[in-house]
Amino acid sequence: MHRQPVGVARTAVLIAAARANEQRHLDRLFDDPLAAPLVRAAGSATDLSGVRNLAGDHFVLRTRYFDDYLSTATTTAGCTQVVIMASGLDTRAYRLPWRPGTSVFEIDLPDLLDFKQQALDALEAAPSCERVAVACDLREDWPRALFEAGFDPRKPTAWLLEGLLMFLPVDAVEQLLRLVGGLSAAGSRIALEHVNRAFRDLPQMRAVHDRFDELDARWQSDVENPVEWLGRHGWTAATTHQSELATRHNRSIPAITDPVKVGDARIWLAQGVRNEM
């Protein structure tokens, strides 16, 4: 077995632990039987339990939001390629009911992808699509790595940037969006998560920032108007608030995203459609 995730890769274990906990509930918002075994293989996520407790159901609601996005993008919208940036311990290639012919590209650091592959092989897990692991640091030439893995920019693509952008500097975020746009055929979709400055500055987030700093996972960017921002990059977008998701799925609004408690602080969940260029 490759070494367990360390440093920034520990954040992937945090999210997998949230999915594993959700799997225990009869009214769970998704099925992910692989999450718990992955967390065990990674050595648990107790070192990040404080972050998960503060998040409440945010990670669970976020997961379901992006699950629904991918389902719509690859069925109704006709995207035949999915690219998950900084995929971590994501198991959507295994647990979602993909349409035949769908290719799911997972981009992440080589060590983390190797760890996940070995853990999934030990479970004899089989993907429900054509899963393609793309081992590449996003600070390097990831478009080239994606091309070499079989990605076709002429086909409509569903892009997923979940739990990523806040960890990147502003210039890196802008470059990432430019590159994604340049690889997106007409009809492509994008979904992402980001935060605004008020959320970064919340007093209750200080302990989270301190813990993430220890993992070399410092939050470095934010956005005030994701719809306008995505529009500048060629996408027609809309956002969904966690309170709406909580109501839709009969869950409590996570305190960290409740406007009554955090005012104008926002975790943005956004989706966009590629404009005709």
Protein described:
The protein is α/β, with parallel strands linked by helices and 277 residues long. It has a single domain, classed as Vaccinia Virus protein VP39 (Rossmann fold, 3-Layer(aba) Sandwich). It is 41% helix and 15% strand. It contains 13 helices and seven strands. The chain has a seven-stranded mixed beta sheet, sandwiched between helices. Helix 1 packs across helix 2. The chain is globular, with a radius of gyration of 18 Å. The protein starts with 9 loop residues before the first helix and ends with a strand. It comes from Lentzea tibetensis. It holds the Pfam family LCM. Belongs to the UPF0677 family.
In short, what is this structure?
The chain is of the alpha/beta class and about 280 residues long. The protein is built from 13 helices and seven strands.
Number of strands: 7
CATH fold annotation:
Rossmann fold
- Low-pLDDT sequence parts: none
* Count of discrete domains: 1
What share of residues are in beta strands? 15-25%
N/C terminus separation: 47 Å
Instruction: Identify the CATH architecture.
Output: 3-Layer(aba) Sandwich
- The secondary-structure class comes to alpha/beta
Helix content class:
40-55%
Name the CATH class: Alpha Beta
Task: Describe the strand arrangement of the main beta sheet, using strand numbers.
Answer: 3-2-1-4-5-7-6
Contiguous helical run count = 13
The profile of the biggest β sheet is: 7 strands, mixed
Q: What are the secondary-structure elements, in order, as H or E?
A: HHHHEHEHEHEHEHHHEHHE
Overall 3D shape? globular
